[in-house]
Design brief:
By secondary structure, the protein is an alpha+beta fold. The chain contains 6 helices and 13 strands. The chain is about 25% helix and about 30% strand. Strands 1, 2, 3, 5, 6, 7, 10 and 11 form an 8-stranded mixed sheet that branches. Helix 1 (about 5-20) crosses helix 2. The model has no long low-confidence stretch (mean pLDDT about 95). The structure holds hexanedioic acid and magnesium ion. InterPro entries: Fumarylacetoacetase-like_C (IPR011234), Fumarylacetoacetase_C_sf (IPR036663), Hydratase-Decarb/MhpD_sf (IPR050772).
Length: about 260
């Protein structure tokens, strides 16, 4: 893809986010494959970093079998996490600063060592992880009606918008994180339950898969990176006034408010 076209697409995505105005699919006016879609994502995130933001980790998306079947893909997608996306536990976020936000409960991995390779195991991932933390991801597709093709959503940084981490840092040594029960409540009402096993059987498998996808491009996860392993349940749309709480066995709670 030539630099002029890439620049035009980056400006389109940036404007959609800044103006909180959903756009038609990029693929309706540009032709690009999945590899080029990651090139668009990279260029958009590089633009933000040049403007002062900082890469602090990655997120995995489309990690549930149901979502993968729906999109007819055999592999999840990833996006990049920037410092500006991290909100405080309990923070009040303006609903009007999003287009059509949805929330997902996730487990975050805080890496203590680099992870590099195409054949990493869950054990390798857990050994490289300092702590596990409860997280809520707020996704906000820049596309109209939250609908997209796989290439479109990759270009859109996998719908990333904000994320929140809990305060409890849990060692990976004690229990199997895949079995930690999670309850997601909005305004005190139970909306979804599940375990991190919903993420590819084990969330550490998702992180290993991310390392593999990055390794194919000559990139690696680094010590200090935060990795959101993937939504444990379906993403749920939120409204102004909503209080969103995810409570995990062992990991504790994490909360965000929309005003
Ligand atoms: O974090 C996610 O699972 C979202 C990935 C992109 C697909 C979507 O926006 O639902
Ligand atoms: Mg997610």
């Amino acid at each position: 893809m030539d630099a002029g076209k890439l620049g035009e697409i980056v400006r389109t995505l940036e404007k959609a986010e800044k103006m909180r105005q959903a756009i038609p699919l990029l693929s309706s006016s540009h032709r690009f494959d999945m590899e080029e879609a990651y090139g668009i994502q990279e260029a958009w995130m590089a633009y933000k970093q040049k403007a002062g933001d900082r890469l602090i980790g990655y997120k995995m998306g489309l990690t549930s079998p149901a979502k993968m079947r729906q999109m007819n893909v055999s592999e999840p997608v990833y996006g990049k996490l920037l410092a500006s996306m991290l909100a405080e536990n309990g923070e009040r976020l303006s609903h009007a600063s999003f287009i059509h936000p949805r929330v997902e409960a996730e487990v975050a991995f805080l890496l203590g060592k680099d992870l590099n390779g195409e054949d990493l195991t869950e054990k390798d991932v857990l050994e490289a992880t300092d702590h596990l933390v409860a997280a809520i991801e707020i996704i906000d597709s820049r596309y109209e009606n939250f609908r997209f093709t796989l290439a479109d959503v990759i270009a859109d940084n996998a719908s990333s918008s904000k994320f929140v981490l809990g305060h409890r840092l849990v060692s990976t040594k004690k229990e199997d994180v895949a079995t930690f029960g999670m309850a997601l409540r909005i305004n005190g009402e139970l909306k979804a339950t599940g375990t991190p096993a919903n993420v590819l059987g084990h969330p550490a498998r998702s992180v290993a898969m991310l390392a593999k996808m990055l390794a194919r491009k000559g990139e690696r996860l680094k010590a200090g990176d935060i990795v959101l392993a993937g939504g444990i349940t379906e993403a749920i749309a939120v409204q102004p006034g909503d209080v969103v709480q995810a409570s995990f066995a062992h990991l504790g709670g994490v909360e965000v408010l929309f005003v």
